[in-house]
User: Fold this.
Amino acid sequence: MFFKWHNSFYKGACHFLYFPMDTISKIFGISYPVVSGGMAWCSGWKLASAVSKAGGLGLIGAGSMHPNVLREHIQKAHKATTLPFGVNVPLMHPEQEALMNVISAEGVKIVFTSAGSPKKWTSFLHGHGIVVVHVVSSAKFAEKSEEAGVDAIVAEGFEAGGHEGREETTTMALIPSVRKATSLPLIAAGGIATGEQMLAAMALGANGVQIGSLFAASEESSAHPHFKKAVVETGEGGTKLVLKKLAPVRLIKNDFFRRVDDAESNGATAEELKEMLGKGRAKRGMFEGDLVEGELEIGQSASLIQEILPVDTIFKKLIQEYNDALCRLKNSRLD
Amino acid sequence: MFFKWHNSFYKGACHFLYFPMDTISKIFGISYPVVSGGMAWCSGWKLASAVSKAGGLGLIGAGSMHPNVLREHIQKAHKATTLPFGVNVPLMHPEQEALMNVISAEGVKIVFTSAGSPKKWTSFLHGHGIVVVHVVSSAKFAEKSEEAGVDAIVAEGFEAGGHEGREETTTMALIPSVRKATSLPLIAAGGIATGEQMLAAMALGANGVQIGSLFAASEESSAHPHFKKAVVETGEGGTKLVLKKLAPVRLIKNDFFRRVDDAESNGATAEELKEMLGKGRAKRGMFEGDLVEGELEIGQSASLIQEILPVDTIFKKLIQEYNDALCRLKNSRLD
Assistant:
């Protein structure tokens, strides 16, 4: 009662108390509504467990793993922490069935699926008592995910690194539209590397955030040090979405990128692009550190990443920035 | 004192009181930190004066006007309201000198310049006691604008409608980076059509917002009713940035768009695209209502615009949404 009075006396009344991140924290059993992206070549057990220990939800990225490698990472993560962590499985993975069997056998409790139909694995995973989150890049696929019975959604905007949707909808436009389309818990991704951006995502209607680039460049990331350094050095305009005729991917503008970009500009066909891409370029760039010929997947927020930090420090920074930004906004009611 | 105690008792303390929009309201002498974009074929005296009367800053878009037409619009706006309004001048306009003379002669007090160097007109305009705001799409040009002595900046993201920057930086990534680069008052543009998005822009560090698409489809917009209807019917993924080899522009996906998009995908040269574009297509689409062959410039936020409303109703809605979203966030401090 007094709270309401005080508030309305000061700058207008709020008629409800609501904590947007409660849903996410409860679903996953975590302290902060922050998920680290399950990124190929970056998100091993070390990053995932560090994020979970810092109070977020760490994801192991199975996209770059064979089933036996994934098993090893899950077992190491279990040894490193008793806190919840999850696994991300891109549904274009040729060994997805074996991966899913490893996941359920090893007692993983949370799975993020992406790049495919949310119908494919949801009931299998639910059957094993696993929380299922599906990654989408449009309101339409958010609706399909809800129909498929998933427990939460990640909506990822155009500014994100790596592979993404064809419609190029940015986080600013995407989150409110997904928020309207579904009542499922909603995690915003794409362009988030600071506490201010976290707060912006919450303002747009998200209940939590998934952060990629910032953790890709963290100390605990399994990416090559050269790649992490390249991320820190990437300035504004230093990335671009290419390979749109294959699977659109946002890359740092290196020599390989420029060849592809020129070819696309000159009308290269999907076949020609496939040949230019070849095999193993993401590994070559991000895991082996070939900054010239590798595929260097990163989001636009790389321009806001200034140093390679341990996960624990990153969390402290994010939370401080979030709270400071919230303080700045708190009394901005418009009358 | 009590406020602090109460706050910290409840969910952690804020150590400062700060109203991010105060700067913008003071600079322009307006009630709400909302500027309507100075859009070609949409932003005439009617829209500009309606926005100013509703408490924001209305802009007349000189991009589609000859000097004598602009004079008429300024005079009508002056008759319609004594409240401040401004004029937007794209610096690729062939008659910009004559436009600037009309602006200073007719006693306009606020000018937004875009698509050119901020050095070009700033001292001329300052010499006439005019507040100068420059539109940028990168932190680098924000710095150049500050050097040129402008009074405020609009930073416009990739999701915006019409012509935009080549780096494709989205509002989510752009605003924090421009905020770091300059201490000038900062207006966020691109992807903003709801109060939630306004709040998100403020969280990112903006002091105010510039809204285009929503006002382009307002009752007072001078656009053709067919175009306004097309905006309302545009769904998610219904726009795309094209003509990147000329001046990148975000368009609704109509027949003309598809021809251009196909040609680009097949490697069309700048010359070929110029020929396809021809002259007067923006007028044809937005002012004359040719939805098939016209250029239909609109932002991604069109998908969030559900009806053609009067400006006054739009403002009430925006402010209600902003305050509600702020209420939802108010107690979301992370501890």
